[in-house]
Amino acid sequence: MRLDTKHIGKFIKLKELDPIAEEVKDAHTMLEKGTGPGSDYLGWVHLPSATKKTDLSRIVDTASSIRDRSEAFIVIGIGGSYLGSRAGIEFLSPDYQRKSCRVYFAGNNLDPNYLHNLIDEIGDREISVNVISKSGTTTEPAVAFRILKSLMKKRYAPKELKKRIVFTTTKGKGALSSMSKKEGYPCFYIPENVGGRFSVLTAVGLLPMSVAEVDIKSLMKGAADMESACKSPDIKKNLPYRYAALRSLLYRNGKKIEIISSFHVGLFFVLEWFKQLFAESEGKDGKGLFPTTAVYSTDLHSIGQLIQEGERNIFETFLKIGKKEHDIKIPRTKDNVDNLNYLSGKGLDFINQMAYKGTAMAHADGNVPNMAITIDERSAYCLGELIYFLERAVGVSGYLLRINPFDQPGVEAYKKNMFRLLGKPV
Ligand code: PA5
């Protein structure tokens, strides 16, 4: 992986990094020794190296039996219980939806049209579901599961249901754990000390990805290699820490919004996961960078104007893929009626890269500092590296903000009102 900071130099001088480098070292100690806020939720820090081969094999075996008996596999979950697996599946298995067992996502909203259309599309296909909720009490997935379960009960005998419903939750806590005990559904347990948005490298993210034939062993290897690359607290040697230090300095210099963008459409849900990880971790105590996402070049024709010339309170982090995959050459035409012959023989990938370079330069010229995180290629290994890179970066970045990056008390506010309006018994 690489972190390209060429378009930051004009905004941050090297010596400005010295004091923050010391703060990063303190943050590193807090993560490693568990001496900072939220230390009960540091299970993710050594999760990649601590995950046993047998745990991964159980996930792979369950995924394969789900695939064998299903034409529609529905992942029910929201926030950290859903975005990571969707990111992995959409990035690494884009052709998966053409295969015999399709993956669907439910329980991430309360829109009846969404669930109606999903049920309609599934029709009489053979279904399996994975209900994912760390707390086992979240309304959106609970409601979706109740609806889908009643549909499945009409089709399958109780014995068959036990092969088609899998839970991922906390042992001994919440409705899913007790339902699994009472009704006998198989269960994967999420370690107590791994919070929702940091749980993508547990069964939360790994089981759905494995059903979609993502190589989860290679994903975990990438994450474990990034974990060992993070041993040094030195921002010169530790890429996630350098990224955390730079974004924190930019924030302290008035850049309050981070646009996480990419010229690769397949990264759309990776950007969404990235956004959630940082927003829910950092936005508290009246502080925090506001992360938003953009996929280019389409969004250059949407928010591009604002980025170039709007209020100068933004910086940008591009997510890039180093190795070219598929390419399509621009054909030459005799009449050149569209005046595109100057591009003939060139690949779309080259044009896309020039669009990136032109945009990065233009944004820097327009006083939008920008940097680029590049993964080597579209592969499970590289996604694993990236996931751990970003987890480590947000842990340090949160500590640089002097907040607890591992809780999310603000998420409760809307729920309280909603439950009161719905008349939930107290
Ligand atoms: O990161 C988090 O903790 C949240 O985004 C949760 O993942 C989300 O609220 C879903 O919670 P649960 O898994 O308990 O249903």
List keywords for this structure.
426 residues; 5-stranded mixed beta sheet; binds 5-phosphoarabinonic acid; globular; 5-stranded parallel beta sheet; alpha/beta; single chain; 47% helix
Structure characterization notes:
With 426 residues, the chain is of the alpha/beta class. The chain is built from 16 helices and ten strands. The strands form two sheets. It has a five-stranded mixed beta sheet with strand order 1-10-9-7-8, sandwiched between helices. The mean pLDDT is 96. Bound molecules: 5-phosphoarabinonic acid.
Helical content class:
40-55%
Q: Low-confidence runs (pLDDT<50, min 5 residues)?
A: none
Q: Secondary-structure element order, as H and E?
A: EHHHEHEHEHHEHEHHHEHEHEHEHH
Based on CA atoms alone, the radius of gyration comes out at 23 Å
- Order of strands, widest sheet: 1-10-9-7-8
Give the structural class.
Answer: alpha/beta
The beta-strand count equals 10
Largest sheet: 5 strands, mixed
Question: Terminal Cα separation, in Å?
Answer: 50 Å
Bound molecules: 5-phosphoarabinonic acid
Mean pLDDT: 96
Question: What fraction strand?
Answer: 5-15%
Annotation field: number of helices: 16
Shape: globular
List the helices and strands and how they pair.
Layout: E1 2-4, H1 17-33, H2 47-50, H3 53-69, E2 72-76, H4 83-92, E3 102-106, H5 112-122, E4 127-132, H6 139-155, H7 158-164, E5 165-169, H8 174-183, E6 187-189, H9 203-211, H10 216-229, H11 239-252, E7 257-262, H12 268-282, E8 290-295, H13 304-309, E9 314-321, H14 348-365, E10 370-375, H15 380-400, H16 412-422
Parallel strand pairs: 2-3, 2-4, 4-5, 5-6, 7-8, 7-9, 9-10
Antiparallel strand pairs: 1-10
Helix pairs in contact: 1-11, 1-15, 3-9, 4-9, 4-12, 10-15, 11-15, 12-15
